Amino acid sequence: xxxxxxxxVVTGTLHSGKTPLINYLxxxxxxxFPEIARLVIDLDMSRGKTIDEIRQDEFLFxxxxxxxxxxxxxxxxxxxxxxxxxxxxxxxxxxxxxGDSSPYxxxxxxxxxxxQVFILDPLPFKKDYARTEDEQTARRxxxxxxxxxxxxxxxxxxxxxMPLDERAKFILDSAGI
Length: 177
Fold this sequence. Notes:
Elements: E1 3-4, E2 7-11, H1 18-27, E3 32-33, H2 36-46, H3 51-54, H4 58-75, E4 82-85, H5 88-97, H6 103-109, E5 112-113, E6 116-120, H7 135-151, E7 157-159, H8 164-175
Parallel strand pairs: 1-5, 2-4, 2-6, 3-4, 6-7
Helix pairs in contact: 1-8, 4-5, 5-6, 5-7
């Protein structure tokens, strides 16, 4: 049985502006939850690990992210409006990137239904400390994310490139908030 949530997913490929947008929505007073992968990377780096050490075994890294995200979503109130930086279908996309069909994640993703999904159009690509992917992989991730949500039946709303405050207004207006 699926549970309808009051959660809004803000997602997109690498460097699409998710984190600044989530931070801005939080600044405006909305409940938000940051990207789990970035939290894990930042925590491990604060303990002295390098990005190469953290991402050494991509399968184990992704499993760790999946478990943390599933645990967090399981503990959240489905009635409480919240903006999530990525949802479970993003994990499906990352598993597919490495050739894993992820039937378990697909089943988990069907247990909770997000109120709305917003997929940000990508900004010009640039590397950062937390990512090991190149521009071609980022394009593939964009396609895989859109496919994962679409396959699960979401009619996601693409969010075009525009200034941060205009992207936030676009999302809030589209969400009817």
